[in-house]
Backbone:
């Protein structure tokens, strides 16, 4: 089995930049604080899974001084998402990781339910499947893991819609890849999603 790299896609948790759809419920500062909590939670769980290198692929550039204020663990590698739509940015990260000889687990920072156990289960799935996916209940996905690259998983996907997960699965089946699906989790994107947030998290925002 190839080495695994966990690549976490993240925005800088700044007011008016991250989690903007939650601003009506939490305000710009509250939404940013929640984004920061979810970022650090995801990094902690990825490190705790202990399945491989953890990379935080960020926007804006990691050279921006605001990233130093996040005080991220020293074990985490920082990289830049670059320009383009989400599909193009995911595609670049996946291509370079897979071309380096590592398998990849791509995750975001929107799911407080995602934990080290689930990440380890996803990594284990790649030992016997071409791909692994944790769907999000809103139709997206929480985690996508693959052992090989194909641009079809990222190009012309209608991102931020209820069809992302289903369309990704259809495309993997067309490639005749074996897929392991793990139980779906809730992303926190809209005010209505806050019902799925641990209550003590809301008390901190």
Residues:
């Amino acid at each position: 089995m190839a080495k695994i790299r966990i690549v976490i896609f993240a925005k800088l948790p700044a007011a008016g930049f991250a989690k903007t759809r939650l601003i009506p419920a939490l305000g710009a500062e509250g939404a940013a604080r929640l984004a920061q909590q979810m970022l650090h939670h995801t990094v902690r769980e990825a490190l705790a899974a202990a399945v491989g290198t953890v990379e935080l692929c960020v926007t804006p550039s990691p050279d921006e001084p605001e990233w130093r204020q996040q005080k991220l663990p020293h074990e985490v590698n920082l990289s830049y998402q670059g320009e383009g739509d989400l599909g193009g940015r995911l595609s670049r990260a996946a291509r370079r990781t897979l071309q380096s000889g590592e398998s990849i687990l791509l995750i975001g920072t929107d799911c407080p339910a995602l934990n080290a156990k689930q990440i380890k289960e996803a990594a284990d799935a790649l030992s016997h499947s071409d791909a692994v996916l944790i769907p999000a209940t809103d139709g997206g996905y929480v985690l996508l893991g693959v052992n090989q690259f194909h641009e079809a998983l990222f190009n012309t996907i209608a991102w931020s819609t209820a069809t992302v997960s289903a369309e990704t699965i259809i495309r993997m089946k067309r490639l005749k890849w074996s897929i392991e699906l793990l139980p779906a989790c809730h992303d926190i994107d809209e005010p209505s999603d806050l019902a799925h947030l641990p209550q003590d998290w809301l008390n901190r925002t």
